[in-house]
Write a structure and sequence with these properties.
Elements (H helix, E strand, L loop, with lengths): L3 E7 L5 H9 L16 E7 L2 E7 L11 H12 L4 E7 L3 H14 L3 E6 L1 H6 L2 E3 L1 H8 L3 E3 L8 H13 L12 H17 L6 H13 L2 H6 L4 H18 L3 H20 E3 L13
Parallel strand pairs: 1-3, 1-4, 4-5, 5-7
Antiparallel strand pairs: 2-3, 6-8
The protein binds guanosine-5'-diphosphate and magnesium ion.
Protein name: Ferrous iron transport protein B
Organism: Paramagnetospirillum kuznetsovii
Family: Belongs to the TRAFAC class TrmE-Era-EngA-EngB-Septin-like GTPase superfamily. FeoB GTPase (TC 9.A.8) family.
Length: 281
């Protein structure tokens, strides 16, 4: 049987390469400051009888990143479709990390969420409700400290289990009704153009990326002139309705989701705003 491809995906400096080394016994260079990884490194590991091809994907902040450092990882997610995404989060900075997560959810690919840097989290007195996070994100959550090689076996277990399990139903983020209607129309157009190849999740994701103005996806569809014209029409209708471009509308909805989720799952000891009450003078 062919190996199961597992991609480590996260923001730069979330600890992907450290995890990759701990998982595979490799000795790749770890960034002390910024972006050491510039190309993809992969290694095979067999765990509980499952051969996993683990890929260290260079970090990026958004699936529509255009900077050269971020494009490698971004293009990988668009083009390669790994069997499993391991979304590596800097658990000490969940506010930054969850924005990418909202976009990875939309790829529909099976995901494992890793809360790395748990040593920092404990030191800062932050508590994270992992059970709630797991159910909200529709993925197992594994806590790790790559630096001390903690949680590595649990992560390998989660990968092997997911490789053997039937895929779970993908989740979707719900946008406002104008956006949803536009997504729906583009999705139908796409499904007509590619009737065989596109699953509903995939066509929804492509529709969202096109409405967002993603260069890569638009270039891929550039020979479908009518579709490209439709997208422009949808974008200007949305701009008219909302006074905001479509990319910002999508980004605001994703931030709203991740901020709302964060309020539910994270508590900081001694946080002056936690349990704050007004009393009568
Ligand atoms: P990448 O950019 O996601 O590949 O991140 P790296 O693996 O290069 O790690 C970035 C920095 O974070 C390095 O200095 C690592 O030593 C450090 N690091 C990685 N994992 C942990 C962890 O669990 N705890 C702490 N405290 N530091 C970590
Ligand atoms: Mg790296």
């Amino acid at each position: 049987t062919s190996p199961v491809t597992v991609a480590l995906v996260g923001n730069p400096n979330a600890g992907s390469t450290s995890l990759f080394n701990a998982l595979t016994g490799a000795q790749s260079a770890v960034a002390n400051y910024q972006r050491v990884t510039t190309s993809l490194t992969a290694r095979e590991v067999t765990h509980r009888g499952v051969t996993l091809r683990i890929v260290d994907v260079p970090g990026f902040f958004s699936t529509s990143s255009q900077s050269p450092e971020e494009k490698v990882g971004c293009d990988y997610i668009h083009g390669e479709e790994p069997d499993i995404i391991v979304n590596v989060l800097d658990a000490g900075h969940l506010d930054r990390s969850l924005f990418l997560t909202t976009q990875l959810i939309e790829t529909g690919l099976p995901r494992i969420t890793v809360l790395n840097m748990m040593d920092e989290v404990r030191r800062a007195g932050i508590r994270i409700d992992t059970a709630l996070l797991a159910s909200a994100l529709g993925s197992p959550v594994v806590e790790t400290c790559a630096l001390k090689k903690e949680g590595i076996d649990a992560l390998l277990d989660a990968m092997a289990a997911m490789a053997l399990a039937a895929p779970a139903d993908p989740l979707r983020l719900h946008y406002d009704s104008h956006l949803e209607a536009a997504i729906d129309r583009v999705q139908q157009h796409l499904s007509k153009l590619h009737p065989q190849e596109l699953s509903p999740v995939r066509s929804r994701w492509l529709a969202i990326k096109m409405l967002e103005g993603d260069d890569e996806v638009l270039r891929h569809e550039s020979n479908h002139v009518e579709l490209v014209e439709d997208i422009k029409g949808e974008q200007s209708a949305l701009a008219h309705e909302h006074d905001e471009d479509t990319a910002s509308l999508l980004a605001s909805a994703r931030f709203a989701f991740s901020n709302g989720l964060l309020r539910e799952v994270r508590q900081q000891e001694g946080d002056p705003t936690a349990g704050f009450k007004l009393t009568r003078i």
